[in-house]
């Protein structure tokens, strides 16, 4: 009688899209917790409820799975930004909405922050292998530039604001207090992780960005 190996999970074939999504979801958690080097394929497989062979079947390698995870998290933030429809909003409202959405996204997406922080420590080694991320990001930057142009033409924004500089500043203002929460809290003796402090921070960032883009009054 042939012995059956009960330790190997069956290969799923009936719903490959669902299985692939489960693997990717498990990978996001593992990469966020341990970074690329520390993440284990067997741990991802166990979390996804499959075997490691299936991961290699869908993603070829740990590296390709990690790149897919990067593409997934950037797709999420780009989709959230696309839903803002900045081109339909008055310039001042568009910049405020962009700032609010960016701040809230980082506050509610620790996986994005963890994985991008890890990728930065790797020198951007893997994100540079995924041109789709740049392809999906450039159109949004163009929309910010259009908002700034419309704002200047309407006389409400100052001239010469670079769209990338502004977006990077909004990201920094929205994320640094999270990335450095423990050290900043210890340094200044205040808990920066409380909801009350985060809400104060949110309003401060909105006001700061609005002041940065606003048309300066000419002196008499």
The count of helical stretches stands at 10
Helix content: over 70%
> On the 0-100 scale, what is the average pLDDT?
90
Name the shape in a single word.
globular
Q: Report low-confidence residues grouped into runs of 5 or more.
A: 1-12
Name the structural class. Answer: mainly alpha
Task: Supply the CATH class of the largest domain.
Answer: Mainly Alpha
Return the CATH architecture of the largest domain.
Orthogonal Bundle
Can you tell me the CATH superfamily of the largest domain?
Tetracycline Repressor, domain 2
| N to C succession of SSEs | HHHHHHHHHH
Q: What is the distance, rounded to the nearest whole angstrom, between the alpha carbons of the first and last residues? A: 98 Å
Short account of what is shown:
The protein is 71% helix and 0% strand. It has 220 residues and is an all-alpha fold.
Task: Show the helix and strand layout.
Blueprint: H1 16-38, H2 41-48, H3 52-59, H4 62-82, H5 91-108, H6 110-121, H7 131-153, H8 163-179, H9 181-188, H10 195-213
How does this model look, in words?
This protein has helices at 16-38, 41-48, 52-59, 62-82, 91-108, 110-121, 131-153, 163-179, 181-188, 195-213. It is an all-alpha fold and 220 residues long. It has 2 domains: 7-60, Homeodomain-like (Arc Repressor Mutant, subunit A), CATH 1.10.10; 74-213, Tetracycline Repressor, domain 2, CATH 1.10.357. Helix 5 (91-108) packs parallel to helix 8. It starts with 15 loop residues before the first helix and ends in a 7-residue tail after the last helix. Residues 1-12 have low confidence and may be disordered.
């Amino acid at each position: 009688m042939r012995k059956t190996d009960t330790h190997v999970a069956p290969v799923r074939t009936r719903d490959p899209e669902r299985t692939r999504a489960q693997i990717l979801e498990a990978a996001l958690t593992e990469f966020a917790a341990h970074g690329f080097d520390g993440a284990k394929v067997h741990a991802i497989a166990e979390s996804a409820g499959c075997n490691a062979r299936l991961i290699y079947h869908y993603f070829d390698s740990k590296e390709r799975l990690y790149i897919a995870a990067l593409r997934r998290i950037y797709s999420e933030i780009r989709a959230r930004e696309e839903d803002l429809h900045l081109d339909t909003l008055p310039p001042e409202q568009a910049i405020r909405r962009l700032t609010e959405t960016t701040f809230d996204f980082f506050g509610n997406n620790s996986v994005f922050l963890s994985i991008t922080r890890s990728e930065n420590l790797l020198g951007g080694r893997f994100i540079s292998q995924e041109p789709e991320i740049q392809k999906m990001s450039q159109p949004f930057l163009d929309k910010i530039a259009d908002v700034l142009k419309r704002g200047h033409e309407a006389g409400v924004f100052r001239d010469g604001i670079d769209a990338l500089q502004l977006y990077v500043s909004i990201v920094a203002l929205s994320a640094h207090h999270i990335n450095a929460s423990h050290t900043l809290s210890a340094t200044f003796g205040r808990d920066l992780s409380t909801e009350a402090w985060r809400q104060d921070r949110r309003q401060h960032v909105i006001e700061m960005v609005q002041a940065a883009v606003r048309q300066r009054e000419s002196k008499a």
